[in-house]
Design a protein that fits this description.
This protein has 234 residues and is α/β, with parallel strands linked by helices. 27% of the residues lie in helices and 28% in strands. The protein has a 6-stranded mixed β-sheet, sandwiched between helices. It has a 4-stranded antiparallel β-sheet with strand order 2-1-4-5. The chain is globular.
Length: 234
């Protein structure tokens, strides 16, 4: 689906007295359904702000954000909560697992939200961690914890996976496995995967690269011949 996600003149301002900081400054771009997209930029370029706006964690000061034909900036609080719960899966750099719940329970916690029930063991099998279902986060390696966080994110079958530096806390070998998993989910399940990073190597395997600087889109690059995850250096 073309223009599955579309930012139109999106600005996010933060005010402190007379000072105005534009964390997002008139953003314009589109993303198709099933694309593997990398958002590149240095610290302070607006990457996380973009992710928060698309994920419904914050509202834009002005502009429109369309997802599957709906302007999420028009959503009321209840509609936005439903959007976050059903349409978006979040994957963070530091996993955000609940320490006193097992891997299975960290996934099945969504069952309490009233949506379709999931079996945590079945979801963990998708990331090759079924045998670790009853382990607590402290009993898992960093890579295993990140795979649990991915399993949790995909458990509700969202259309969009938003990944904020998902390999930033991992060694190169483990980071490879995490990116390979996300890439496979994108290809095999037609999910739209958006990765915020400063690692330019990820651009080589992406369908589209959106470069940010000082809150602005400075370039959008279509990659007509993406490399496989196995072809880049880790």
């Amino acid at each position: 689906m073309s223009n599955f996600i579309e930012f139109q003149n999106v600005t996010k301002e933060y005010r402190s007295g007379d000072h105005v900081l534009k964390a997002a400054n008139n953003l314009n771009f589109s993303i198709d359904k099933g694309e593997f997209v990398v958002i590149l930029g240095p610290s302070g370029s607006g990457k996380s702000t973009l992710l928060n706006l698309l994920g419904g964690l914050d509202y834009a000061t002005s502009g429109r954000i369309y997802v599957n034909g709906e302007n999420i900036e028009d959503f009321k609080e209840k509609e936005m909560t439903q959007y976050r719960a059903k349409s978006v899966g979040f994957i963070f750099q530091f996993y955000n697992l609940i320490p006193n719940l097992t891997a299975r329970e960290n996934i099945e916690v969504i069952n309490d939200l009233g949506y379709s029930k999931v079996d945590g063991r079945d979801i963990l099998a998708k990331v090759r961690l079924r045998d670790h279902a009853e382990h607590f986060p402290s009993e898992l390696s960093g890579g295993e914890q990140q795979r649990v966080s991915i399993a949790r994110a995909i458990s509700k079958a969202p259309d969009i996976l938003l990944c904020d530096e998902p390999t930033g806390a991992l060694d190169s070998a483990t980071g490879y496995h995490v990116i390979k998993l996300l890439h496979d989910i994108c290809e095999n399940e037609n999910k739209t995967v958006i990765i915020v990073t400063h690692n330019e190597e990820f651009a080589l395997i992406s369908d589209k690269v959106i470069k940010l600087k000082d809150g602005k889109v400075v370039d959008v690059i279509l990659n007509e011949s993406p490399k496989s995850v196995d072809e880049i250096e880790w």
